[in-house]
Amino acid sequence: MQRIATLALAFALTAAAPTLAFAATAAAPAHAAVETVGEYSNVRVSHSEDPHAYGYTVELYRQNGELFGLLYSDQGLVGDTPRGRLQDLRYDPASGALSFRAKLTLGREYGRESGPDGRPSRDLFRFDGRLSGKLLSGTLEHRDGYKPDAPGEREKVALKFDAQATRDLRELAPASRAAWQAEELPFGPEW
N or C: which end of the chain has fewer CB within 10 A? Predict the structure, then answer.
């Protein structure tokens, strides 16, 4: 009789084991939290009555080991900075190699193809460089999205880590990459 009781107890524990394992799996988060990597910038602001800003800012986050973020391009009056999501972002943590592209709309363009009312610009940026310590440096190429095969303007950039801006980003970090991608992007590309 004791043997039957022991077998019944063993069967009950075996039958309960998958349920306990499932409960532990179900309670685990589906994905890791978003980590703020940092804000890197070379933006210069004029000290005049009508301040202007020039330069670039890259905002980086990480979730499940993958980076994502935004590129900002300041090219005039301070405020309402055009921005675009980083696409095709590739990062090698071992070497620090980082590359991406981003679509922005910096303003309106007027010409034969645009008609009398003009059209939103299509600004295509491509970055190829390195993320090392407190610096994101490399080559940034700016092309016309209406003529993507035409040569673009290339410049070397060195974007420095901004500790205060990074602390501010942490407070506003998205809940997830999927939620971030679904959000409307103010001053984002119009193409």
Answer: N
Cα–Cα distance between 121 and 80 in angstroms, integer?
Answer: 16
Among 89, 110, 113, CA closest to 101: 89
What distance in Å separates the CA atoms of residue 162 and residue 189, rounded to the nearest whole number? 25
pLDDT at 7 over 90: no
Q: pLDDT digit string (tens) for 27-36?
A: 334 568 999 9
Strand 52-63 to strand 35-41: parallel, antiparallel, or no bridges (unpaired)? antiparallel
SS3 content of the chain, % helix, strand, coil (to 5): 20, 45, 30
Average pLDDT over the chain, rounded to an integer = 86
DSSP code for 148: T
User: CA–CA separation, 65 vs 50, rounded Å?
Assistant: 42
- Residue indicated by tokens 């991406």: 100
C-beta neighbour count of 55 within 10 angstroms: 15
CA 123 to mean position of chain CA atoms: 17
